Amino acid sequence: MKRLLKYYVLLFFVATACETEHTVSVQPVATVVERTSPPFENGVWIENEYRWDGNTYIVVPAHWAKKQGTWVPGHWKSTTKGYAWVPGHWKK
After folding, report:
1. Where are the domains of the chain?
2. Tens of pLDDT along 34-84?
């Protein structure tokens, strides 16, 4: 019985630790940001990104960032529940 209880507790923690994929039925409208000259050496232009605010995705406007490797842009992924944002990330 104790072994079974430990198993269920472990299963609960593993299941709740998994990141939830947030979906929306319509992709947010992108904000257009004009690309300027880099404000510093080795600047990398990061196109619009999106972050989940607990209710919907909000735009994080395009901007310059200091190079930390190769930037892999984010993208929208179509799912059976709608659209989910796959965030961009640095690849070293």
Report:
1. 21-91
2. 999 999 999 999 999 999 999 999 999 999 999 999 999 999 999 999 999
CA angle, residues 30, 88, 81, in degrees to nearest 5: 65
Q: Give the per-residue pLDDT at 2.
A: 54
> Concatenated DSSP letters for 6-64?
HHHHHHHHHHHHSPPPP-BSSPPPPPP------SSTTEEEE--EEEE-SSSEEEE--EE
Residue 37 token pair:
């000259």
CB 71 within 8 A of CB 90: yes
**Residue in this structure with the two tokens 């909000």, named with its chain if needed:** 58
The pLDDT, as a whole number, for residue 15 is 41
Query: What residues are paired with 71 via a beta bridge?
Result: 90
Strands 57-60 and 75-79: unpaired
Q: Which two tokens stand for residue 32?
A: 């257009």
What is the Rg, in whole angstroms, of the alpha carbon atoms belonging to the chain?
19
